Automatic annotation (TrEMBL):
Pathway listed: Amino-acid biosynthesis; L-lysine biosynthesis via DAP pathway; L-lysine from DL-2,6-diaminopimelate: step 1/1
Residues recorded as bearing N6-(pyridoxal phosphate)lysine in the entry: 60
Catalysed reactions, as listed in the record: meso-2,6-diaminopimelate + H(+) = L-lysine + CO2
Gene3D superfamilies cross-referenced by the UniProt entry: Alanine racemase, Lyase, Ornithine Decarboxylase, Chain A, domain 1
Family that this chain belongs to: Belongs to the Orn/Lys/Arg decarboxylase class-II family. LysA subfamily.
Protein name according to UniProt: Diaminopimelate decarboxylase
Superkingdom of source: Bacteria
Amino acid sequence: MEAFQYKGNELFCEDVPVARLAEEFGTPLWVYSQAKFLSEFNAIRDAFAALDPVICYSVKSNSNISLLKLLGDAGSSFDVVSGGELFRVQQAGAETSKVIFAGVGKTDAEIRYGLEADILMFNVESEPELDAISAVAKSMGKVARVALRLNPDIDAKTHSKTTTGKKGNKFGMDIERHNALAAKVLKDDHLELRGIHMHLGSPILTTEPYEEAAKKALEVVTELRKQGHQTNWVNLGGGFGLSYRGSEAPPASEYAKVILPYIQEAKCRLALEPGRSICGNAGVLLGRVIFTKREGGKRFIIQDAAMNDLVRPAMYGSFHKIWPVKPTVAAPSDFEAAEIPGCEPADVVGPICESGDTFATGRALPPVERGDLLATFSAGAYGTVMSSNYNSRPRGAEVLVDGNKARLIRKRETLEDLIAAERV
Ligand SMILES: Cc1ncc(COP(=O)(O)O)c(C=O)c1O
């Protein structure tokens, strides 16, 4: 489904004109579509239904507790990478018994927190971490359920900063270490090996890496069982593609097609940790044009949404569609076209004192004026969660739309919020 559509030359989120939300809540403003969140979650659940998977929405991609509650109520579980994320899951009122705790550097306090919450399992990334989990579990008189994170050395052909399953990345362990640690678990009364974990990177726009990973998982599980393990979980992580540009990401059913046969053959439960593919296209970032200017032969559109709100373009050089909320030119099918009738190239920038504070360079855009609204699309994932107060800019508000209703799910920060934790 399309959550954001132009109707009568004005952008709507579901049945709500987003300009109305900007009037009511100000800018920068994050606008989310409830229906889009749910339809993407349901698409994954339905695609993998034959295996009744545990879908652990990756909290890191967008952790607003109203969104966690929405997904929890729809049957999602959660993948967390910190005590803070586990706290959010609890605050959302979600069950923790199906939570998976991932991450390369869990502290003892976080391990203890996970054990107290009786989570489904920890994804373990190194021997020192395994030892720490065992020690904390022993001190609590508990048995920690773990999966070992294998680095399968698969090239997921994604951005170098978001590739995680290649040899040389900081994540996981190679097969030799995996097997050695599996043997160690067998001898430890405070550890139980639940399964194998892999996460290859993000976003992955082809299905082949998942097929390779699922095949690898089958091999490893077969071997582990020969060694005497009761291993019955395969967790293939997240990373499903998101269509930032058009429809470049395969649907969930395509990933399912290549993964299912191997997991069925392994007779394992399947866990997945999707984030971006659920929330990415469920959100836009609205900014208001502060000034336009022409300098050095270029047109600049300076808006009040900036890299402190959405850092992805500055951090990864990522592409986001950008178009006015009430355009004088209809939105094109190709937002990257060098020439669009009625448009002129422009750099879309924010007010932050960094040249990197640029959302788009030389982008064909219609005329805009001071006060106009711009929408930056596909901003629902890795947007708010990576936002900061750089340049002492309060973070924007977040609004969730359901049909013709909209509700504030995070208030705009105030100047007082900026200094609330500081002491003089
Ligand atoms: C271990 C792990 N699982 C899941 C995810 C979620 O990935 P995505 O949001 O691309 O689905 C990530 C992303 O960094 C991750 O590192």
